[in-house]
Amino acid sequence: MKVSILGSTGSVGQNTVKVLQAQDVTYDVRVLTAHSNYERLAEQAIALDAKAVALVNEAHEDALKDLLKETNIEIFIGEAGLAKAAQMPADWFMAAITGMAGLNPLMHAIAQGAKVAIANKEPLVSAGRLVLEAAEQSGATLLPVDSEHNAVFQVYEAANHKAIERIILTASGGPFWNKSLQDLEVVTVKDALNHPNWSMGNKISIDSATMMNKALEVIEAHYLFNMPANQIDVVVHPQSVVHSMIEYSDGSILAQMGASDMCTPITNALGYPKRLNTPGQKLDLKQMKRLDFEDVDNEKFPAIKLAYECIEQGEGACIALNGANEVAVSAFLNHKIAFLDIYKIVLKAVQNRPSADIQTMADVISYDKSLRKLAESYIVSKPVVKTATH
Ligand code: NAD
Ligand code: MG
């Protein structure tokens, strides 16, 4: 099987490499892509005997060429190079770029009619309808990798779609679940990056701390499983053992459980419909003293409620939520705004967004751009200096 990894140097990308290497068969690795980490990209390409690599950041072109000079690995550079890489024929893609930057390569992979394992949730939030339509047209199979959506996918009975009463997404609550609103005013970037259960890229780690991650996931589930907002629930489950559930009309709740290790959903998506071996952790049930489930605290974490409102308001609102969040998270990571400003900026952008008529992917892209500008205008440029009081 020919496989390609879009975003191979990130957290999901590296786990995907690990999963590929752990299998008995040798995969025919076509292309690996990265934004800037040319050293890891070169290392992965050599280890997997990849046919090509794509590096977006042109500044490292020479250094990458130098590292690969004794190989026949083809090198693509820049945005155009990334697009070319995603157009190289493959049977299975991992879409693991972060943010809307992954949209264009994702669409190229889908256009091939391939199996597309999709971790990259932001394009689904902003363009879910169009992404699913494109997959329908090309015959591509979308395989959810986000752990909650992979869980739902595993317990989803297509023939009983009408008997689904609720999709129940679990949320760990993130690093700040037990903090007070007052505490949240002074948390730092370092605190926010310190997730209790999962080790992930910076952007999704901040999203987990604001619980915007779960907000994005509600919208992601709405599109992936064609489910109205009022049939999607979120429950906080601090142990991250039950990765999500479906409740059927007969009262059965089917759950998928496992360790908090992305190797499981990645292995599932690689093998589908077969089951392969994971190189990751397995769950030891005897170590689990208890499993807790509680309601979301909408006062401390208002993002989830906003996601429901955005689904009701339509695609323009979802694009605004996602685009403004990407801008605000990046500002927070660069120490330009405080933690609680992230949500404030997102809310303001959603509320003040211009009206939108989203028909095509070009509409999504231009609306997303204009919303990012709007969100940027809400960022006060002076750095926020906050000192923790406790
Ligand atoms: P990451 O930041 O660790 O890695 C991102 C990858 O995308 C890297 O290879 C990077 O080089 C590449 N990239 C970043 N910006 C790019 C750009 N502008 N153009 C091209 N390539 C670019 O991110 P991650 O944690 O692996 O997450 C990837 C995606 O998967 C995100 O959408 C995230 O929400 C989703 N996801 C991640 C996890 C997880 O455990 N990390 C779980 C579920 C879903
Ligand atoms: Mg998730």
List keywords for this structure.
globular; Rna Polymerase Sigma Factor, Chain: A; binds magnesium ion; alpha/beta; Rossmann fold; binds nicotinamide-adenine-dinucleotide; 390 residues; four-stranded mixed beta sheet; 2 domains; seven-stranded parallel beta sheet
Describe the secondary-structure layout.
Blueprint: E1 2-6, H1 11-21, E2 28-34, H2 38-48, E3 52-55, H3 61-67, E4 74-77, H4 78-87, E5 92-95, H5 103-111, E6 115-118, H6 122-138, E7 141-144, H7 147-155, E8 164-171, H8 181-184, H9 189-192, H10 202-210, H11 212-224, E9 232-236, E10 242-248, E11 253-257, H12 263-271, H13 303-313, H14 315-333, H15 339-351, H16 361-377
Parallel strand pairs: 1-2, 1-5, 2-3, 3-4, 5-6, 6-7, 8-9
Antiparallel strand pairs: 8-10, 10-11
Helix pairs in contact: 1-12, 2-3, 4-5, 5-6, 6-11, 6-14, 10-14, 11-13, 13-14, 14-15, 14-16
Bound molecules: nicotinamide-adenine-dinucleotide and magnesium ion.
